[in-house]
Each structure stands twice: as structure tokens, then as C-alpha cells.
Design brief:
InterPro entries: Agmatinase-rel, Ureohydrolase, Ureohydrolase_dom_sf
Organism: Candidatus Daviesbacteria bacterium RIFOXYD1_FULL_41_10
Protein name: Agmatinase
Distance between the termini: 43 Å
CATH superfamily: Ureohydrolase domain
Number of domains: 1
Pfam families: Arginase
CATH architecture: 3-Layer(aba) Sandwich
Largest sheet: 8 strands, parallel
Family: Belongs to the arginase family. Agmatinase subfamily.
Shape: globular
Structural class: alpha/beta
Number of helices: 8
Length: 294
């Protein structure tokens, strides 16, 4: 008589039980600032809706990832007009989930949603490394008068004492460039990933800069606009699907990915294929975490 509650991937309810689930999906439908075009607050529900059409068996890792359990929380109520409040809300939610030993998957929303999440992770894992997939560095100190925005996210995370590695960059401000040099942040440009023959060596270099516990923050504008146009500031010359998977899989094999987020999808700015790609990316990362070092 009733449609089932829309959990990620629309899996059978016996795999969505909160206490038993390995993964918990948190939706942060929040958008404080857009550097070009907005709409990423609509990303989380679009990803969850599209996820019901992904194949649940992952042939690459030979696993039905959903059987580890995926619980989808109701949306975190966005804090209207107060970025600090949203950071605090996501910090509190994530901290509660980490006490329950969950792997948290946060869906944004603009990139600032990562700040509170990483703060909670940093408290649990003091030696945490963050691997950022992104076209932009996001290390400005302020953007439009605010220290809490998508353009300042990694500056705030770096300020927590977190080691950052950035992959896929191809658009930086001078401030971003100077800050990265001053703080010796490891950066890999999109052009570095353009040669598949060198991708394995590059992935090894990325691994060298990561500690044992890794948090993935994935801004979908990492991808080339030919496969991901549904984002506020798409940048030409980006990497492809298999570039991302090659790096993610190797990191999961050699390190422990303890949590991740996928942010900045603005579904109305591109074809439905973009939203499906984001949903499949979420499921692939879950699968790699599950397969781990096996």
C-alpha cells in the first residue's frame, strides 16, 4: 500500500537497520555560497533517488556491498544563514555516528559541509589524512567575507592540523598557490593524471603522503565536464571516471578509508547521467572500503 522509505540504493529493509549497518548516509542539503552557479543543495536527494537504479553487485570487487548494511538518515536540517551552526550540526551528527563505529558517508551540499565532519573524524583519528579530489584548492582564508564557505573549506580543515593531499587541481587563485607553497601541501594537477601509463606511479606518490587513516572528500567537479557538467563551477581538462577509481581503489587497498563525502553536485545543471555517476561513485567507494586490504 505504501512505497518503502527511500534509503540509499533502495535496498531491502533488513540491510538498512541502523545498529547493524556498516555505512550511514548523511544528507547535508546546505548551500552557503556559490562561486558561479548554485543548486548543490539539491544534490543529496537527487543522489539517493538515482541510487535506486545502480546495480547492487559490484563485478570489479565481486561483492554485493549493500549486504554490509547501509542506513540512510533523514536530512540534517540546514542552518539558514549561519554557516557556523551547520558546521556544528554536522560535527555533532558525525561524532555520534563515530561513537557507534559507523563509516559515515556525507552527501553535500556545498563543500563547506566537510568542515564539521572532518572535525569529528580528526578527534577520533588524531593522525588523520584527508585526500581531496577537486578541480579547486579551496584554501582561501575568506570568500565574500566568510571564513566558512566552499572556497575556504580546506583552509579550515588544514587549520585543524590535518595533513591534506589534493588531486585533480586545475584552477587556483594566487592566494591558494601561495598558501600551498607555504604549508607544503601535496598537490597533483589534473594534467598529472592525463597519462594513464604514469597513473600507477602517481598513485604511489599520493600514497606516500597519506597516513594510515584516510578521509576522502570528493568534489564532483574533479571530473571533466564531459562526464560531470552538473556542478556550479565545471572546469575543462579534468580527469575521467577510471582515473578516480584507480586512485580510490589503491588507497583502499593500502590504507584504511575511515569515511568520505561527495559534494557539489547540482543536478539541475546537467543531464541525469551526472546524478547517476555521483550515486555510483558513492557505492564504489563503499565497495572499496569493504574490500579494503583483502
Amino acid at each position: 500500500m505504501f512505497y518503502p522509505r527511500l534509503n540509499f540504493a533502495l535496498i531491502d529493509e533488513k540491510y538498512t537497520d541502523f545498529e547493524k549497518a556498516k555505512f550511514v548516509v548523511v544528507s547535508a542539503t546546505y548551500e552557503v555560497s556559490a562561486t558561479y552557479r548554485g543548486g548543490c543543495k539539491d544534490g543529496p536527494p537527487a543522489i539517493i533517488s538515482a541510487s535506486q537504479y545502480i546495480e547492487l553487485y559490484d563485478d570489479e570487487i565481486n561483492k554485493e556491498t549493500f549486504k554490509a548494511g547501509i542506513h540512510t538518515l533523514p536530512d540534517v536540517i540546514p542552518a539558514l544563514g549561519a554557516a557556523r551552526d551547520m558546521v556544528d550540526r554536522l560535527y555533532s551528527v558525525t561524532k555520534m555516528l563515530l561513537k557507534k563505529k559507523k563509516v559515515v558517508c556525507t552527501l553535500g551540499g556545498d563543500h563547506s559541509v566537510s568542515i564539521g565532519v572532518v572535525k569529528a573524524y580528526m578527534e577520533k583519528y588524531p593522525g588523520l589524512s584527508v585526500l581531496q579530489f577537486d578541480a579547486h584548492s579551496d584554501t582561501r582564508d575568506e570568500y565574500e567575507g566568510s571564513k566558512l564557505s566552499g572556497a575556504t573549506t580546506m583552509r579550515r580543515i588544514h587549520g585543524m592540523g590535518v595533513k591534506i593531499t589534493q588531486v585533480g587541481l586545475r584552477s587556483l587563485s594566487k592566494e591558494d598557490m601561495l598558501f600551498a607553497k607555504k604549508e607544503n601541501i601535496k598537490q597533483y594537477n589534473a594534467s598529472d593524471l592525463s597519462n594513464l601509463a604514469n597513473l600507477s606511479n602517481l598513485t604511489d606518490q599520493i600514497l606516500e603522503g597519506l597516513g594510515d587513516k584516510v578521509y576522502i572528500t570528493f568534489d564532483v567537479d574533479f571530473f571533466d565536464p564531459s562526464i560531470m557538467s552538473a556542478t556550479g563551477t565545471p572546469e575543462p581538462g579534468g580527469p575521467g571516471w577510471y582515473d578516480a577509481l584507480t586512485i580510490l581503489k589503491k588507497v583502499a587497498q593500502e590504507r584504511e578509508i575511515v569515511g568520505f563525502d561527495v559534494v557539489e553536485l547540482a543536478p539541475d545543471l546537467g543531464p541525469h547521467a551526472c546524478t547517476f555517476t555521483a550515486a555510483k561513485l558513492v557505492y564504489k567507494i563503499m565497495g572499496y572500503i569493504l574490500a579494503g586490504k583483502n
